[in-house]
DNA sequence: CCATGTGAATTGCTTCACAGCA
DNA sequence: TGCTGTGAAGCAATTCACATGG
């Protein structure tokens, strides 16, 4: 059972699940690897291979049961229960996250929000009260928070992350444009709009460069 | 000169550049592949291999000139000039993007913002006036907008994207949780907070599963 | 002597193609 | 017959290791 599933596989599983939830809501009963592939931007073989790492969930000749596969994927991804998260740094991005109602329906509860700016502390956003950083340890313990979202300015990001980890966070989602260093065993994902924009610039530039034709 | 550079390479180049800009601001003159690797989360060999696809920028025995390498990377990524972008959908995320002052200093100008909600139209956010969708074509032409950021609700995302592409967008940054279908040749990157959170859940769950020991 | 640049070796991921089963 | 599940093949990315040259 000790698996080594790559990041890209996990991302695809998440996309399959997103699709399955939608199909489920539409009362679809069965789906093929081909359809799942087309609607999530991959190939049928890839879908089958991804799923086969975890078991045989389909019926040969038929396809996959939407409901069953959904439940299996939720289990595999650890989404068979709700997750409690905290947001550190309530600037533009942090505020947007607190107001982003979509989290709740996807199984994530924002249980706490922190900022160092005294003028923000005490106010409420999206039903969450903003607390000072020194309330962090207690809040993490009380709410059993396992995921911390770092949305501070870049200078404060490493400290915020380290503190969240000491307080019990086992995963960090980092919005600050910096490479965080975290202890072994703490999961990390990054979201950096500028980085993605720069990637697009490369592609656009490359596409419009005369170059020397194909091959 | 016809290159086939993978997505992950481009992401790393972007990270190197981020670091080089910081070193440059600190007046550092030279940097080694090892240091660049450590501060961006990769290996020295990887740094050298990535750069070697585009030329020989270093001096053996010395390292890389911070300023020179920075300029080279800016050229490679197409960041030797400014880029004009538009934001479609001014909800929580769109508003945060308009207010996110960090874009300007990284070479991106938000030239236009669009929403379908009449109550939002005409108001100004981060110095950009929100326009109705039917002003899109003219704005894209006038400002020569090449990148569209989709921040609409999921139901509106495909239409918004298609419309942006017809109006001249050559790249899409999509915040909506849906697989967009775009014509060949239009670059696409996705940002999905929920997807990243789910990835973290998987890692945390996997790490705490008893499993059956190593191997 | 030191760190780059790079073929060669390796590792990992994706695609292929078909056996197996409803 | 139709679509899954899966070894094997093919491809891409990373790591190794060392020759190269300041």
SSE inventory with pairings:
Two copies of one chain form a homodimer.
Chain A: H1 7-25, E1 30-31, H2 33-40, H3 44-52, E2 58-59, E3 63-65, H4 66-77, E4 83-88, H5 92-99, H6 102-105, E5 108-114, E6 124-125, E7 128-131, H7 136-143, E8 147-150, H8 154-166, E9 171-174, E10 187-190, H9 193-208
Helix pairs in contact in A: 1-2, 1-4, 2-3
Chain A binds a DNA duplex (22 and 22 nucleotides) through residues 6, 8-9, 32-34, 43-46, 48-49, 51-52, 56-64.
Which key phrases capture this entry?
homodimer, Rossmann fold, DNA-binding, three-stranded antiparallel beta sheet, 9 helices, Arc Repressor Mutant, subunit A, seven-stranded mixed beta sheet, 45% helix, 2 domains, globular, alpha/beta, 215 residues, 18% strand
Describe the overall structure.
By secondary structure, the first copy, chain A, is an alpha/beta fold. Chain A folds into two domains: 7-76, Orthogonal Bundle (Arc Repressor Mutant, subunit A); 83-195, NAD(P)-binding Rossmann-like Domain (Rossmann fold, 3-Layer(aba) Sandwich). Helix content of chain A is 45%, strand content 18%. Chain A is built from nine helices and ten strands. Chain A has helices at 7-25, 33-40, 44-52, 66-77, 92-99, 102-105, 136-143, 154-166, 193-208; strands spanning 30-31, 58-59, 63-65, 83-88, 108-114, 124-125, 128-131, 147-150, 171-174, 187-190. The first copy, chain A, has a seven-stranded mixed beta sheet with strand order 6-7-5-4-8-9-10. In chain A, strands 1-3-2 form a three-stranded antiparallel beta sheet. In chain A, strand 2 (58-59) and strand 3 (63-65) form a beta hairpin. In chain A, helix 1 crosses helix 2 (33-40). The longest helix of chain A is centred in the first third of the chain and has 19 residues, at 7-25. The first copy, chain A, is globular, with a radius of gyration of 21 Å. The model of chain A has no long low-confidence stretch (mean pLDDT 95). At the A-B interface, helix 1, helix 5, strand 9 and helix 9 of A face helix 1, helix 5, strand 9 and helix 9 of B. The structure holds a DNA duplex (22 and 22 nucleotides).
